[in-house]
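User: Fold this; tokens only.

Assistant: Input:
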Amino acid sequence: MPAEIAPAWVKDAVFYQIFPERFANGDPSNDPENVQPWGTPPTIHNFMGGDLQGVIDHLDYLEALGVTAIYFNPIFQASSNHKYNTYDYFRIDPHFGDLETFRRLRDACHRRGIRVILDGVFNHCGRGFYAFHDVLENGPHSPYRRWFHIERFPLYPYDESQPANYRAWWNIRSLPQFNIWHAPVRAYLLSVARYWLEQGIDGWRLDVPNEIADHEFWREFRRVVKRVNPEAYIVGEIWQDGTPWLDGTQFDGVMNYLLREICVDFFARDAMRADHFGQRIDALLRLYGPTITPGLLNLLGSHDTPRFVTLAGGDVARLKLALLFLCTYPGAPMIYYGDEIGLSGEGDPHCRACFPWDAARWNHDLLDWTRRCIALRREHAVLRHGAYLPLLADRSTNLYAFARRDHTSLAIVVLNNNAHALTLMRLPLTRLELPDGLPCTDRLSGRRYRVERAALSDILLPARGAAVLFAQPGGV
């Protein structure tokens, strides 16, 4: 087998994405003056007071959930609640805390075996970034004019009635785009990457890296990162085919939005039947192959998408089935904060609501299920390391089944994507070459089955439910 690109720990990890301004308010003394009461409906501009101390205060909750890595949306100084308009890449936003707070968070995470991944916004900055501010002050005389794509002076960063005269991400004037081909810009951004790795982070999630069309920049970025920490994870936000960045010289993985689209269509929307789902999963596995797939960051939603349960029309059973699939599929599963308790919301800004720390508002059945799915993955190495073998994708019954297999273990996952219970009369196992009489136990129901004539028979499946069958030790 060819070598995998990503560090070995990634395929064993369970990620949790935190939007810091909305996760927990642990230190009200650093709140913005215009902070809104916790739980106020989110808008593009309002602040709720979430901070890094809030994360520290709730690490026990995350550890109990089974989380082993946290991906943080940006934490550097910026004027917005989302912090993608960075002012200072070397300073923690004061409404989140300071460097000492970050170090306490880092250490508290690492003591629990939780890795820390930061969001790197290197395509663009905020209008308050020192170099862009200098250009606004000094115009054509600024020593930083080549740091940006300036067409002509004067610039109009606020006056929408005038042309901006500089390149900005998606023409949003508050996000001036770096001139990545200018050597001082590259040196600056690489120094940012190096500095935070030296502060003990475990990797970078890269914001819109496809907007930086220079692949050589990302090769240089990888060299800088891996020199500091060869085990650091580099994952790019790529919504389509990520293979141009996954040649072993750039990223370790990408956020697997392609997988999310398939899961939304099958589990949430009933936009496809099991046969089409199987075809698309097979195509995705072929696209990335065994060198890339284990290092992908698999997700059902993020800060840029509607909540999965909202797309499912509020049907938590659909989310539960998708979560089980995510935790039994190759690559690293990621839970978007609040999904595990049933937090809902349409697209930005509604998908960025505050985490409700009043446990009476949680869906505890969903939370228990999420913990169970994560525990299943963490307890059984075959669900993290085993080969993926499709077994059934039946259009008429809408059942999908696959196996995960390594040299010593076998897991068979059967998904019933129907609103009613079903009995699978016969699941062919010919390609697994299993001996007759081999016992298999469903870890979800406790029921036991036996392989007979290269098949399992009469598998009971709850509505929007599943069976996760493990062969008895020594039987494979």
